[in-house]
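protien #1 (seq + structre)
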Amino acid sequence: MLFVLAATAWAAVGYVLTTLDPRGDSTVIVSGALLLGAAMALTVAPVLWVFGFIRNRRIAYRGDWLRAARRGGLVGLVVVLLIILRAQGALSLPIGLFVIAMPILIEITLSARR
């Protein structure tokens, strides 16, 4: 089901990228960034679950889907932030590294709890 939603989100991203011009309207940038972030999150979450399933010798533990959804959401959030920062002209190397490092630190903190 998530792959069907991801395919729909990728179709919406394709529509926005091919038909709308971001130079004239800033809402196109935000909507495109949100659509691309959602498409990435919906694509990455099931893949992360499958990797965890294989890593655990084909045993699905309770909470694996929530962990995969959280990690997919973090990937989507990073994509949205990087696109919006790039569109505003505020993206630099230190800011980009910070945006990428913060979800990694969040995930390390949440994974170390167990």
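ok now protien #2
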Amino acid sequence: MDIKAKLSGRVHMNDIHEIIFLAQGNDSIKLELYNLLFDKDDKLAYQTSWVFTHFSPYENEWLIDKRNELIDEALVCSHPGKRRLLLVLILRQPMLDPPRMDFLDFCLERMMSKHELPAVQTLCMKLAYEMCRDIPELKQELRAMLELMEPDLLVVSIQAVRKNVLKAMKTGRSLQ
């Protein structure tokens, strides 16, 4: 199967399931897919990231060593849909210790941005919390930012995640 050709056209769930089936336990196909994440064709890169979001937790472990590359791509990605899916992939990975400060700054900025998709804002809020969870000074900064957000002016999804993050802060539990 020519995966690049398949992902360059219209993709359906059956196509995704077929690609995932081929990739199970096959690192060369996973690597081929992974390289397509960085393709200059936004549609191809977006659809490839969509495939990765359907990986099982076991297959997703293959991406753990690639966290920094995924973060680097999310920082420069101009395609909002691909950025959202990259953030989903990053959230599924264990957090780096210590956290990458450039990525934390990115998340703090994007969670507050009115120009960002609500899904990206909520993912950035969750990621920022996970990065700050064990560092009291950063956790306080995040809390202050969340309290600055006017709940009545937020879309429902952002209100819900904000509330859940503030609740999780009290117990220190993870959102992953």
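The mean pLDDT is 93.
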